[in-house]
From TrEMBL:
<feature type="transmembrane region" description="Helical">
    <location>
        <begin position="111"/>
        <end position="130"/>
    </location>
</feature>
<dbReference type="InterPro" id="IPR000515">
    <property type="entry name" value="MetI-like"/>
</dbReference>
<dbReference type="Pfam" id="PF00528">
    <property type="entry name" value="BPD_transp_1"/>
</dbReference>
<keyword id="KW-1133">Transmembrane helix</keyword>
<comment type="similarity">
    <text>Belongs to the binding-protein-dependent transport system permease family.</text>
</comment>
<keyword id="KW-0812">Transmembrane</keyword>
<keyword id="KW-0813">Transport</keyword>
<feature type="transmembrane region" description="Helical">
    <location>
        <begin position="70"/>
        <end position="99"/>
    </location>
</feature>
<feature type="transmembrane region" description="Helical">
    <location>
        <begin position="261"/>
        <end position="278"/>
    </location>
</feature>
<dbReference type="GO" id="GO:0055085">
    <property type="term" value="P:transmembrane transport"/>
</dbReference>
<keyword id="KW-0472">Membrane</keyword>
<keyword id="KW-1003">Cell membrane</keyword>
<dbReference type="GO" id="GO:0005886">
    <property type="term" value="C:plasma membrane"/>
</dbReference>
<feature type="transmembrane region" description="Helical">
    <location>
        <begin position="184"/>
        <end position="206"/>
    </location>
</feature>
<dbReference type="InterPro" id="IPR035906">
    <property type="entry name" value="MetI-like_sf"/>
</dbReference>
<feature type="domain" description="ABC transmembrane type-1">
    <location>
        <begin position="70"/>
        <end position="275"/>
    </location>
</feature>
<protein>
    <submittedName>
        <fullName>Putative aldouronate transport system permease protein</fullName>
    </submittedName>
</protein>
Length: 293
């Protein structure tokens, strides 16, 4: 057994304490937001809330969760995230694979690659984007939230660079055994690229979950609003004339600050639940990157 020197022990203890303090500092904003969301409106408005709720109440969550529109928006968001992730990941894989080939294997590779990069450097603008979606006839449908962002160029570039780093001998041996491009992609490239795919998948999920502006301008009916759009609208313009009964009693205990805190926490909670399941792929990706020659 190797004995550690005193200096190494001190250095190791300092690193542990520093990382614990850094982790706690990252959690402080989330804890603060959670405390505000469970605090009374007057206490939150007076700035009396730090890391523990003052005047504990669940009125902010009751005001949001008891509205039928909230449950409808959750369903729209879940549908958007599911369709958007599947379509986006499928297109990303199908585009990144051929673009990862060498020029002698795919002569038009450079031209296609620069065509995709061009869309990152130059944007058509909001009005042409809106008119294109309108002319396709998908306004006020779930596809208006999915198809416009179905070709994530940045994710494609990340994945094709990861593909280019894989050993070429694997593809050559599979080709000798009679495997075609489809078999090579789904049996070799995709399994070996799970760290990169998991990272891109998380980016896609977060993007669809947090997007609210496209839902605001592409959805004519409030029933088709995704969750982020719905929460943004009820905070920007609360229609008090339509709030009656028990909801009005809850509103008396809700302030703009507590409602925004509840919005932030509700919006971030699903991502915080998904991230731990993908964490091991991030760690594996870091290890693979560190030993790559």
């Amino acid at each position: 057994m190797i004995r550690m020197s005193m200096g190494y022990r001190v250095f190791n203890a300092f690193n542990i304490l520093f990382l614990v303090a850094l982790s706690f500092a990252c959690l402080l904003p989330i804890i603060h937001i959670l405390a505000i969301s469970f605090s009374g409106s007057s206490e939150a408005g007076a700035g009396l809330v730090s890391l523990w709720p003052v005047g504990f109440t669940t009125s902010s969550y009751e005001f949001i969760l008891k509205k039928p529109e909230f449950l409808t928006s959750i369903g729209v968001t879940l549908q958007r995230v599911s369709l958007g992730t599947v379509v986006g990941m499928l297109i990303t894989l199908l585009v990144a694979y051929p673009l990862s080939k060498e020029t002698h294997a795919f002569r038009m590779r450079t031209i296609y690659a620069w065509a995709f990069v061009f869309t990152i450097l130059f944007n058509g603008g909001l009005i042409p984007w809106y008119m294109t979606i309108k002319w396709t006839g998908i306004m006020d449908t779930i596809w208006a939230l999915v198809l416009p962002g179905a070709v994530p160029v940045f994710n494609i570039i990340l994945l094709l660079n990861f593909f280019r780093g894989l050993p070429k001998e694997l593809e050559e041996s599979a080709s000798i055994d009679g495997a075609g491009h489809w078999t090579t992609l789904w049996r070799i490239y995709a399994p070996l690229s799970m760290p990169a795919i998991a990272t891109i998948m998380l980016f896609t999920i977060v993007n669809h979950w947090n997007s609210w502006f496209d839902g605001l301008i592409l959805m004519k009916s409030h029933d088709n609003y995704p969750l982020s759009t719905y929460l943004q609208t009820i905070l920007v313009r609360m229609d008090l004339t339509s709030v009656t009964g028990e909801a009005l009693n809850n509103l008396r205990e809700v302030s703009d600050r507590t409602a925004k805190a509840a919005q932030i926490f509700v919006g971030a909670l699903p991502i915080m639940l998904v991230y731990p399941f993908l964490q091991r792929y991030f760690v594996k990706g870091i290890v693979m990157g560190s030993v790559k020659e």
